[in-house]
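This part of the workshop introduces the protein records we will be handling. A record pairs a protein's sequence with a compact description of its fold. Comparing a sequence with its tokens is the quickest way to learn the format. The record below serves as our worked example for the rest of this section:
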Amino acid sequence: MVKDYYLPRTDEAKAFWLVNFLAKLNNYASILGLSAAELTSVKNDVAFFSYILNAVEVFTTAKEQRVNYKNVLRDGPIGKIAGAVSDVPALGTKPVEVAPGIIPRITQLVQRIKNSPAYTESIGKDLGIIGASLTVDSDGLQPALKLVLKGGQVEVQWKKGNSDAVYIEVDRGNGVWQFLGIDLNPHYTDEMPITAHATWRYRAIYLKRDERIGQWSDVASISVG
């Protein structure tokens, strides 16, 4: 079954995940053979990442307040009270600084944990290092194409989704569909020279492990020449 990646995408969600991971990790350290130094490293990484993330938020807000204050001072209106300039925000005691690479260090540790003979799925779920199951209706997958003229060539725009690639065909105005290309990463540029006025039509279907899946896209047309 396809699994989503266990690590959240946003910095805020990563920080929350890291705090939970550290709290649960202490329960399994001896079982998984983790050293005190490794636990300390994770603790320092989590603390410093949370501190810096909070600092970014605090100073972003402070900047917005000062920009607003500056705008009132500059433009008025006359008689408007601008208020007092805020003091420099206090961030509290700074934790132990760590070297760059917090997430790579954590993901390497996660891989080590999963390779441990003592590792079980229940441990993985408790630590939050197993992604949620994804249900993919491969029969219903269908690319959505958008055609754009760029530099005298047609760019076939599409979204990858859960596919490996897309198989593209073209009809150059003669009513015959012919193979154009297989694109692994959006977007695809049709390099055929445009020599006369015509309507070119395109269609595509997703590929997974070199097999066609889902349905052909709706036909997309564009006038060239």
